[in-house]
Design goal:
It contains eleven helices and 26 strands. By secondary structure, the chain is an alpha/beta fold. The strands form three sheets. Strands 5, 6, 8, 9, 11, 12, 14, 15, 17, 18, 20, 21, 23 and 25 form a 14-stranded mixed β-sheet that branches. It has a ten-stranded mixed β-sheet with strand order 4-3-7-10-13-16-19-22-24-26. Strands 1-2 form a two-stranded antiparallel ribbon. This is Fe-S cluster assembly protein SufB. Belongs to the iron-sulfur cluster assembly SufBD family.
């Protein structure tokens, strides 16, 4: 009798691929020129300094070469990308006031229900602008600010100007410069000293327009001794043209503060996801990243933590699922720039159907960072002979008094583990399913419940017979 091979289902994208008719109020022309950037700036009523910033970033974009490493981006043609799409609505603070087609999209994604059950505030972006925003009154009374970036530029201009693209400068790489020129939408959060936001805030980004880019900017400032959990979700329906995502996240964690940043990225298979995320952590502060990368045709995403203050801490838990036609180049970086800093990176990746999953990471210990500690653990599970998984770690250690560890494993499901579970009365099929679920469990357990359920639904593992 022929032994059946294991079948692992592809990502289930049914509800994510439902698209709406394009009813945008304003669209920029395709391409990237000073005139287009100025048009976007006028459409958004930018202050003069922001208009000048955009044009300077555009100059940097023109002068900066494409990356010569990682996956090929040859299919990206900026002449065919629409960089700004304003939906046919203003931002609302009541779901019932959001246009029906847009509201129905977010209802299918479960955002209003999650807001009612488990969130202290919600922002929902559709194409290039936030269409809905809310925050619980008790947080407002404590001085917490949670709004869209367009509003923050008006109501908190000094704070935005002090921090905007100071941590991630346009000169960092070509797609950060692009972001600086055409950014739109995103979230602004400020948590005052000593305030602990016990219930998470969440922003969800949905790109509906074909051939467009989404360039949201997220700026979060957690002041001294404060605490926050911020959740980010994103998705897009599949089109037969290239879409681009080049968002930017800047996180400022002050002395003794803590921030957890959780995200599930579920872009469609025509999306190039070139996102940039960075945190700077002051004395005794902590940053936790929880990351799930599932969608997109190509991803290049490496959240970076700069441990600036003594005793600062960083933790990263990430899972990547690369299926047929996907090249997901992801990882994490930590810069230990002060004494007694610590970091822990745990990465899990699954590759099937010829998908490519790459972990690319860096640990840097500066000369002044004595007694720094770091642990990196990367595990990859390949489910067939067509797929590929690489681990590309960089360790730049410039002080001797440190503790650094790195472990990487690439393999298939262990026959010994299957045998052990079967010896305890578990069927072969369920044993395999348990192993794969357990493989991603270190990340799933860190996600909020509704996102852990979403992750399991996305992977949608169906096992039968033997791996081989």
């Amino acid at each position: 009798m022929e032994k059946k091979k294991t079948a692992v289902a592809d990502i289930e994208r049914g509800l994510y691929d439902i698209k709406n008719a394009d009813r945008s109020r304003y669209k920029s022309a395709s391409g990237l020129t000073p005139e287009i950037v100025q048009d976007i700036s006028r459409e958004k009523n930018d202050p003069q300094w922001m208009r000048e910033f955009r044009l300077q970033a555009l100059d940097i974009y023109y002068q900066t070469a494409m990356p010569d490493w990682g996956p090929s981006l040859a299919e990206l043609d900026m002449d065919n990308i629409i960089t700004y799409v304003r939906p046919e609505t203003e931002m609302k603070d009541n779901w019932q006031d959001v246009p029906a087609d847009i509201k129905n999209t977010f209802e299918r994604l479960g955002i209003p229900q999650a807001e009612q059950e488990s969130l202290a505030g919600v922002g929902a972006q559709y194409d290039s602008e936030v269409v809905y925003h809310s925050i619980k009154e008790e947080l407002v009374k404590q001085g917490v600010v949670y709004t869209d970036m367009e509003t923050a530029l008006v109501e908190h201009e000094a704070l935005v100007r002090q921090h905007f693209m100071k941590l991630v400068a346009p000169s960092d790489h070509k797609f950060v410069a692009l972001h600086g020129a055409v950014w739109s939408g995103g979230s602004f959060v400020y948590v005052p000293p000593g305030v602990e936001v016990d219930i998470p805030l969440q922003s969800y980004f949905r790109l509906n327009a074909a051939g467009a880019g989404q360039f949201e900017h997220t700026l979060i400032i957690v002041d001294k001794g404060a605490k926050l959990h911020f959740i980010e979700g994103c998705s897009a329906p599949k089109h037969n043209v290239t879409n681009l995502h080049a968002g930017c996240v800047e996180l400022f964690v002050n002395e003794g503060a803590s921030l957890r940043y959780s995200t599930i990225e579920n872009w469609s298979r025509n999306m190039l996801n070139l996102n940039t995320k960075r945190a700077i952590v002051e004395k005794n502060g902590s940053i936790e990243w929880v990351s799930g990368s599932f969608g997109s045709k190509i991803s290049m995403l490496y959240p970076r933590s700069i441990l600036k203050g003594e005793g600062a801490r960083a933790e990263f838990n990430g899972v990547t699922f690369a299926a047929e036609g996907q090249y997901l180049d992801t990882g994490a970086a930590v810069i230990h720039a002060a004494p007694y800093t610590s970091s822990n990176i745990s990465s899990r990746s699954i590759a099937k159907g010829g998908g490519v999953a790459v972990y690319r990471g860096a640990i840097v210990v500066t000369p002044q960072a004595h007694h720094a500690r770091s642990s990196v653990n990367c595990e990859s599970l390949m489910l067939d002979a067509l797929s590929r998984s690489d681990t590309l770690p960089v360790m730049d250690i410039l002080h001797d008094e440190v503790e650094i560890g790195h472990e990487a494993k690439i393999g298939r499901i262990s026959e010994e583990a299957i045998f052990y579970l079967m010896s305890r009365g578990i069927s072969e099929e369920e044993a395999k399913a348990m192993i794969v679920r357990g493989f991603v469990e270190p990340v799933a357990k860190e996600l909020p419940l509704e996102y852990a359920v979403e992750m399991n639904n996305l992977i949608n593992i169906e096992l039968e017979g033997a791996i081989g």
